[in-house]
Write a structure and sequence with these properties.
- The chain has 716 residues and is of the alpha/beta class.
- The protein folds into three domains: 2-100, no CATH class; 113-159 and 208-412 and 702-709, Rossmann fold (3-Layer(aba) Sandwich); 416-695, Glycogen Phosphorylase B (Rossmann fold, 3-Layer(aba) Sandwich), CATH 3.40.50.2000.
- 45% of the residues lie in helices and 13% in strands.
- It is built from 29 helices and 20 strands.
- The strands form four sheets. Strands 1, 2, 5, 6, 7, 8, 9, 10, 13 and 14 form a ten-stranded mixed beta sheet that branches.
- β18 (591-594), α25 (606-612) and β19 form a beta-alpha-beta unit.
- α19 packs across α24.
- The chain is globular, with a radius of gyration of 25 Å.
Amino acid sequence: MIAAMRGDQELGRRAADLAGRLPDALAPLARIAYNYRWCWYPGGTDVFRSIDEGRWERCGENPVRLLQEASGEALARAAADRALLDRVASLEDAFAADLRRPPAGLVAPERPIAFLCAEYGVHQSLPIYSGGLGALAGDLLKEASDRALPLVAVGLMYRQGYFRQRLDVSGWQQEYWIDTDPERLPAALVRSEDGRALRITVPIRGSEVSAQIWRGAVGRVPLFLLDADVPENGRLDRWITSQLYVADPVTRLSQYALLGVGGVRALAALGIEPALVHLNEGHAAFAVLELARAEVARGAPVEAALEAARQRTVFTTHTPVAAGNETYPREDVIGTIEDLAGELGDPEVLMRLGRYHPEDGQEPFGMTTFSLRMSRSANGVSRRHGAVAREMWRGLWPERALEAVPITHVTNGVHLPSWVGAPMRRLLDRHLGEDWRRQASDVATWEALDRVPDSELWAARREQRAELVEFVQERSGIDRLAERQPRAGIEAAARAFDPDVLTIGFARRTATYKRIGLLTHDPARTLALLAGPQRVQFVLAGKAHPSDEEGKRVVQEMFRFKDAPNVAEDVVYLHDYDLGMAARLVRGCDLWLNLPRPPMEASGTSGMKAVINGGLNLSTLDGWWAEAYDQTNGWALPGEVDPDHAAQDARDAATLFRTLEQEVVPAFYDRDADGLPHSWLDRIRASMRTLAPAFCAGRMLEDYLQRIYAPTETSA
């Protein structure tokens, strides 16, 4: 793994160069900045914020940019702060100890797991993610680091990332993109022995597309990102890594060829021979072709090579939504991978593997279909999603009974240290012990919650809600200025929200099946709730895909009510939802809403993040909530499938507001003489005790190790 180590060394050189521009006392911060371990280590974010809080926010919480841009005065002040320097030294010692730990688990360090994904939500300062898939991938990498699991990750370095969002005064979404300069990210180019950037090439649409490799560090896990924006490529090829999920289908297929084929080639160039390749969604499916091509180059027959590649591949499908299971015309696929397919014999053999009905030459090629056929193991991301996936894809195995369709499930989990707020973390440290983060998947870890005084639990919740309210007041004013709202709406933003009012959150991609429209399905009832004697306040956020006109209209419809009584002060829709905003919302909201139309929710993870912060869930019995809800740990809407969507929406909207009016609001405001809502706090304890161990990333990774990654008789 000499080349992989060279990537480590280049990160070290970048850190040393940055350290040389800082006061000597702050030099360790440069080394810390080049490994994202700081973003989930207690106090890591605060150390950088302490240098210059305003600059930290303007830099998008990018520690490399902060240290490059902070004024000499700010750096000198930080270098003279003895308490800050002690915290920096503690961080550096903890990081060094973490990296010294020996590898653990069933995976040999010389043959790691290779995790391939189109997006990674490691931190908001690395804008190569769009939503839940990326957040899940980032959490898995962090948990793998915490557990010292030998794992390497491969993705793409998008020069513009995913789109940014603004809403106009009517609520219509406007998209724009911002260039990302990789030189200012916590990453470094992997270089060859001669000092030049290491290159790989991938045959795509008749061209040999070159890509350089950026090396990032997520704790102990290396993250390699391929970048086609190099001088050797023509302009069209340089655009392959321009934007995440670019709209043009031919460019999108080129991205997937670079990710899959290029990902395997990059690992080979780095001296890494993975024991197993994990395709996280179908975007990287062409990796199997490169694995097979290498077998053919070693003399294996094509059929045996394809089977050998299949035995080294596992696949996770993340959605039952048709648009998420991408298909492409045969000519576009062949045009993209023609050279590689030619090395594997008859391209039509590969096309049949990607068709639901193999002999139907008119059927498009499906990335999910191909991934399912070419992996030794496949899984959905919740128990219900596993069952839905077996029903969806049963035709690929027509000889099998439904229950024997080879798609299992590993329910998603979230990396608790990344999402827990500081007040709640301090509370858990006091009462559960500081090891709770490493033992989160053990049910016994959470038994001590019953001994946490109500007053302390409520104080932590109030503090986190107050932090969210301050953020909402600041951001909603800026957003309403950008919307060009009348003066009254802008003034209302300054009064928006109260730190002692029940705060309800709904934030996710605004696809129509997510049903944010249930909140205004019965306008009179919505406005009556807002005007009630016991106040409630709603914070909403989310992006619609740029091509999803219907999703944009759903959000715009909500803006019709912005001038109604109480709405301007008690309802905000925040622009440009991202990981940083998500963290603030799940930490501060008292109630988290998730209202998908069953059975379209594969899993969902935002509600899991609310759990660790003492937030409660009111969700449809779909995705993860279908296996989580026990009637004591939150609230639920029915999860049955109903083809009459209008009737279902009317019924579910009525249930939603009845639950809010008759159960949620009364429980929150039922206080004793000391102002403590005991029944609400009891439900928080039940939520954390039952859900935190079951839906943390530690449990998820354990499931992958034992049920997916473990060698099978065929693969061993």
